Amino acid sequence: MQNDVGSEFRELEIVPTLATIERLQVDRQYRDSQGLFFVEGVRNFIEAIDHHCPLHTLLYSERLLINPIARKLVRRLKRAGHPFARVTPEQFRRVSRTERASGVGAILRQQLKALDQIDLQDQQCWTALSHMRSLGNFGALARTSAATGAAGFILMGDSIDPFDPSVIRATMGALFKQTLVRTSRKQLRRWARKHNVQVVGASPGGDLDYRRISYTRPVVLVLGEERKGLTDEQRSICNHIVRIPTAEGMDSLNVAVAGSLLMYEMFRAPSDQRMLDGKS
User: Fold this and answer.
1) Is the pLDDT of residue 271 over 60?
2) Which pLDDT tens digit goes with each residue over 65-74?
3) What CATH number corresponds to the domain at position 41?
4) Measuring CA to CA, how many Å separate 150 from each of 66, 137, 178, 185, 215?
């Protein structure tokens, strides 16, 4: 088989590459210190590349990878000179965490912005979080956020790791369509006031029905931790605290469900307002 252009000096040693991937999957401190994370699967791989997530290392198994689009993308990336490791099916399965190994994965560079790096646009919606017990809930929120065209997530503090393998799998590629910001509650409060950003918190004890508020853009939705809800510090950031009505005997919704309802309400609101104003 004829090698791709440059493959003789861009092909990496397999054993250290696999060791790096294994450590990236289990050691958050290592992920953060290196500024890297690992993804696998055709959907995640294609979405990451299509949305220009910086590629560190390509991993693939010629025998396992049967998806024609992903195979074509692998060839293009190799021709472009990106480092790669070509492995056997057994070697790929060594680092795979899926029931059926797809044969393609990538080490990617983390992308986290500061608040002052945001190009704030009038129509942007964000979700702010500080703690999340279930990584699956964060993944579900990321999928809804991408589906509604929201800008992304403002992560207050260091508790939430958006590059955890469980999060990556749960987002099904949606994470690569989102901008991720890392900041503090104090910085978010100052930024929101400086730029006149509407901040809406969600709580079962909120004094406003979520359907009875005028959402303006830009807007930040603040969601609390699953069990404890909004903290006093989070509440102090908010202009409004809204609630989602529930049937008698139910005091709250799953945070991913509640967040999704609110995201779609914020997504719908500007269209409704345009109709009220007589605009299309």
Assistant:
1) no
2) 999 999 999 9
3) 3.30.1330.30
4) 33, 17, 8, 20, 14
pTM of the model: 0.88
Three-class secondary structure of residue 258 per DSSP: helix
Calpha distance 168→163 (Å, rounded): 6
What's 108-166 look like in SS3?
EECCCECHHHCCCCCCCEEEEECCCCCHHHHHHHHHHHHHCCCCEEEEECCCCCCCCHH
Same domain, 238 and 146: yes
Domain for residue 48, yes or no? Answer: yes
CA 90/CA 61 separation, integer angstroms: 9
Q: Are strands 152-156 and 125-129 parallel, antiparallel or unpaired?
A: parallel
Query: Could you give the 3-state DSSP secondary structure of residue 17?
Result: helix
